[in-house]
Design the sequence.
């Protein structure tokens, strides 16, 4: 360990030298109130920025132990500190100055969701933030005085405003910590009330635009209000009694005219698998944690998935009990997406008619009369949705706007009208009875249990230098192949994709052995993360991996399933 003046001296000594001389400042430096770790220095001003950590002894940081006494509380506090550090950067850092990324200070950016991240660590010993700095240069010549400005003027101000309890809003910290605890409580207690989701009265579901996840605040904003028939209440650990709409297990339809809030409600439920920050509007929109949004996904890769429950008797005798394709159709992709979700362990499917394959969802009576079942390989979802619940215990929430035939298979029907939900189940059943003979049920067999698959080690490159990278929330690069995830809608943060990319590499080295099923592999990785923290997946041993966010089992499985070199064998 060096004192802070050693860093100043080193920066002065390398001022005006070639960029590679920055490597000499790697190490740990003691400042007045904190330790600065310079873990990795970039090789070039255009390269990924340098990785640093600031650590404040908890005796100085002063955060009360009750704020991080449990896992949900700790994650909430770490999230809060990252946001404060980011805001302090905005107030004190001068920003870009020089070539490439010169002068940029950044911490992993947090969205509306509160996720477990590697960007912050809080424990009884210290508080730590992991961040990046673009070491300043003109061309490839070091500007040491600018680096001194960063480390001795800007960074101390950032740290002082964001990592000491006495400098922060104690009430706001308590609010976020207690809110996350309440959200976790709600999610854990849905099952005992027979629910798969809950939307609190007063929730604000619409977002401000199609490209923003922030709540709508302008114009006519209509708070959510449960219909009386579906209203339930919970007594929260911190927030008192909360009342709202409970969606019971089974088959639920969300209907209504266009632009009346059907898809908005479904999108809120999709995101309800995550906790949200205060002020988001969806803080108390809570969905079971393993819910999966299903959609058609033309062109995706499928490897030996048993889709025979939905598609069978294909022309030329193709076996759909181990269906593979490089270029799936809308119907085969949607069938595979459902089976893969079941394989990963979901209890709730979320579907929107608008993003589904029409021929997969339904065949009406007139089409059944024209095209005989023997010439139609698709068993539509309408004829399996009740079996999924009654035989496998998997519920469905489905947005429909044009197919009233689903009334006959629904346990409840919720109509959105001017963003207000109404329970219209009784009326929907009456309509279904009047039209009950217009189509025939096409599923007469029992729905089989899901066939698990075992990924083969030969599918994966496991060399240390294999290229692993994420691009936004849409794509992972593994080796020389792109994994397209743009239609995996519950990935909400680029940091989740960065984590998934490393999880695939980690799993390939440790658990993909030709014996464990895909789900067993992922659960083994998640057990390691639970035990050792999300840092465990990082290749930067001894350095900070400050830009990962924890993904769910379901999205890890989705990424592996879309890897075009994947080979599996089915578990007999």
Sequence:
């Amino acid at each position: 360990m060096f004192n802070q003046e050693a860093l100043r001296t080193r920066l002065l000594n390398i001022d005006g030298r070639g960029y590679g001389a920055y490597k000499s400042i790697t190490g740990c430096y003691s400042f007045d109130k904190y330790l600065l770790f310079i873990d990795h220095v970039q090789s070039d001003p255009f390269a990924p920025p340098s990785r640093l950590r600031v650590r404040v002894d908890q005796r100085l940081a002063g955060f009360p132990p009750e704020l991080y006494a449990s896992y949900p509380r700790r994650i909430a506090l770490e999230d809060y500190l990252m946001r404060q550090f980011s805001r302090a950067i905005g107030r004190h850092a001068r920003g870009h100055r020089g070539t490439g990324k010169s002068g940029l200070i950044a911490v992993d950016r947090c969205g509306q969701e509160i996720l477990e991240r590697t960007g912050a660590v809080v424990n009884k010993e210290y508080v730590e933030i992991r961040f990046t700095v673009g070491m300043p240069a003109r061309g490839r010549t070091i500007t040491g005085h600018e680096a001194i400005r960063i480390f001795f003027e800007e960074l101390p101000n950032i740290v002082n405003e964001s990592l000491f309890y006495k400098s922060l809003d104690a009430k706001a910290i308590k609010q976020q910590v207690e809110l996350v605890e309440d959200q976790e409580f709600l999610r854990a207690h849905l099952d005992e009330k027979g629910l798969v989701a809950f939307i609190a009265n007063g929730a604000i579901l619409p977002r401000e635009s199609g490209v923003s996840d922030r709540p709508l605040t302008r114009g006519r904003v209509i708070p959510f209000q449960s219909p009386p028939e579906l209203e339930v209440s919970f007594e929260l650990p911190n927030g008192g009694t909360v009342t709202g709409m409970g969606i019971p297990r089974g088959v639920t339809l969300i209907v209504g005219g266009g632009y009346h809030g059907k898809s908005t409600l479904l999108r809120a439920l999709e995101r309800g698998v995550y906790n949200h920050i205060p002020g988001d509007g969806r803080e108390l929109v809570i969905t079971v944690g393993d819910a999966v949004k299903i959609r058609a996904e033309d062109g995706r890769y499928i490897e030996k998935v048993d889709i025979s429950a939905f598609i069978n008797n294909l022309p030329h005798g193709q076996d759909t009990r181990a269906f593979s394709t490089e270029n799936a159709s809308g119907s085969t992709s949607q069938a595979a997406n459902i089976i893969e979700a079941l394989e990963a362990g979901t209890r709730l499917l979320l579907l929107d008619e608008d993003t589904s394959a029409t021929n997969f969802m339904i065949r009406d009576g007139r089409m059944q009369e024209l095209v005989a079942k023997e010439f139609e390989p698709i068993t539509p979802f309408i004829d399996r949705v009740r079996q999924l619940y009654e035989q496998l215990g998997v519920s469905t929430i489905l947005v429909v706007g044009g197919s009233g035939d689903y009334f006959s298979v629904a346990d409840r029907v919720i109509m959105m009208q001017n963003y207000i939900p109404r329970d219209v189940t009784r009326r929907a059943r009456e309509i279904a009875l009047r039209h009950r003979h217009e189509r025939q049920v096409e599923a007469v067999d029992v729905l089989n249990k899901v066939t698990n698959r075992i990924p083969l080690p030969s599918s994966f490159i496991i060399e240390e230098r294999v290229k692993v990278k994420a691009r936004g929330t849409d794509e992972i690069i593994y080796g020389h192949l792109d994994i397209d995830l743009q239609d995996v809608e519950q990935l909400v943060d680029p940091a989740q994709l960065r984590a998934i990319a490393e999880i695939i590499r980690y799993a390939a080295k440790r658990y993909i052995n030709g014996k464990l099923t895909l789900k067993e592999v992922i659960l083994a990785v998640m057990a390691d993360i639970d035990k050792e923290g999300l840092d465990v997946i990082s290749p930067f041993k001894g350095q900070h991996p400050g830009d990962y966010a924890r993904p769910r089992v379901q999205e890890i499985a989705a990424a592996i399933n879309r890897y075009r070199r994947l080979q599996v064998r089915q578990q007999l």
Q: What stands out?
A: The two ends are 57 Å apart (CA to CA). Residues 298 and 329 are 5 Å apart (CA to CA).
